[in-house]
Amino acid sequence: MTRREALLRQARSDFSVYEYLTSLDRDAVPECHPLHFFQMCTEKLAKAAFDALGMTTDPYSHIAFSHVPSHLARRDVARALGFRSFHAYRDFLRRAAPLFRRVDELNPAVGQQMPAGGAGDGPNVEYPWEARNPDGYPTWIAPSEFNFRLLIQMERSGDAAKMLDFVRQLLDRFEAVFPATR
């Protein structure tokens, strides 16, 4: 098995767990858990796609999915994914780019970028972070108690839902999008 095949298989497995977790009651499974599996899926899927394009990626970096809008804005990819209009596909990727970045930022190693450029100690799907309560006192936030407001967007219409469909299509059609001869 190649690295690309291994990344793709794990991405598909992560997505299966994401789908299972989203099928459960939100009171039983907090939003952070399906989002964690979605973030892991998209990271591996992006790295598999970049590998198929002949790009090298840092195996230890968690920033990958946010690069998809620029690297996969290609006519052949749009066609293989079933988009009839390249312009509509490219426009979707441009509009949704902040959402792709937001998914990368769910990983605590990435985090929301601070003005100086480094990851901040804030909302992520894995580890508690320190914040301020309404009275201004320090407090800790558990991801399981935090409303990321992303899962509900992905379940509705709009670009977040289209991003989810894009991931599904790329997982389902990966071999057609990136034939082994590339």
Could you characterize what this model shows?
The protein is mostly helical. It has one domain. The protein is built from seven helices and two strands, in the order αααααββαα. The two termini are 17 Å apart. 32% of the residues are buried. The model is unreliable at 114-119 (pLDDT under 50).
Spatial order of the strands in the main sheet? 1-2
Instruction: Supply the helix-strand structural class.
Output: mainly alpha
Would you count the extended β strands for me? 2
Strand content: under 5%
The helix/strand order is HHHHHEEHH
Nearest-integer average pLDDT: 91
Q: Tell me the major beta sheet.
A: 2 strands, antiparallel
Radius of gyration: 17 Å
Distance between the termini: 17 Å
How many distinct helices?
Answer: 7
**Uncertain stretches:** 114-119
**Helical percentage:** 40-55%
Outline of the structure:
The protein is mainly alpha-helical and 182 residues long. It has seven helices and two strands.
